[in-house]
């Protein structure tokens, strides 16, 4: 990964929107191996109190998603922005549903398929290459659509949620959580100080607020069932990340690789913004597609 070239492009907001496919692909093709080594199969955060392990916190988040989305064994589930398929395989194991994951990264597809075969889950879980903004599936193809910290990569959030609604059957649910901008004071100042640097380092076109996500869901014709930031009280999602960043080995490694240096800096930006109250990785949402009326 040519980090210098990548960051030169991602520091331009217009380029992030215009070239989202290539930039997101470059990012995940470049960092997936490191993510997997440091974070396991599930590239996302979860509420964390410090009294549980990180894997236990992540599984608890998957169980919350299963309950909120109402996933059943008979359902067809679509996981958009699925990474290497960790959550998709977890949902399949927990429910018996058939889960299809979509990622824009060829490297992630390759790794996901290897892991799925190794875990003997080919019958209930598959990962395919695709752009979540332009899905190849017919209308009403899935009972449940989930998005796990992936909608933040979409250049047109309203169009993305409309696409989710299109492939969802009437009565089906869209559920998940996303990175959100949570300004507490001067919105534009906090956007410049916290949201924009995060977007630049992670190739995000922009960060939405929780309220904006709700507006997009309603505009897509969905009925909002639940909309909340799970980063409350002592459930601090960013503490495991902060501990990793402060580990001397991580700091040494970041001086040996430009990709690791970029990842170290990007993680620091997340923790700084979260501690300032301007960012959360846990903007949780559940919505339902109305049933057809006769």
Structure description:
The chain has 294 residues and is of the alpha/beta class. The protein has one domain (3-288): Vaccinia Virus protein VP39 (Rossmann fold, 3-Layer(aba) Sandwich), CATH 3.40.50. The protein contains twelve helices and seven strands. It has a seven-stranded mixed sheet, with helices on both faces. α6 (106-118) links the parallel β2 (98-103) and β3.
Kindly summarize this structure in a few lines:
The protein has 294 residues and is an alpha/beta fold. It is built from 12 helices and 7 strands. The protein has a 7-stranded mixed β-sheet with strand order 3-2-1-4-5-7-6, sandwiched between helices.
Question: What features would you highlight for this structure?
Answer:
Rossmann fold, seven-stranded mixed sheet
Biggest beta sheet attributes: 7 strands, mixed
Q: Average pLDDT across residues? A: 94
Would you tell me which CATH topology applies?
Rossmann fold
Given the C-alpha coordinates, what overall shape results?
Answer: globular
Termini Cα gap = 54 Å
Number of domains: 1
Structural class: alpha/beta
How many E strands? Answer: 7
User: Superfamily at the CATH H level?
Assistant: Vaccinia Virus protein VP39
The largest sheet has its strands arranged as 3-2-1-4-5-7-6
Can you write the helix and strand succession as a string?
A: HHHHEHEHEEHEHHEHHHE
Q: Give the strand content.
A: 15-25%
Second rung of CATH, namely the architecture: 3-Layer(aba) Sandwich
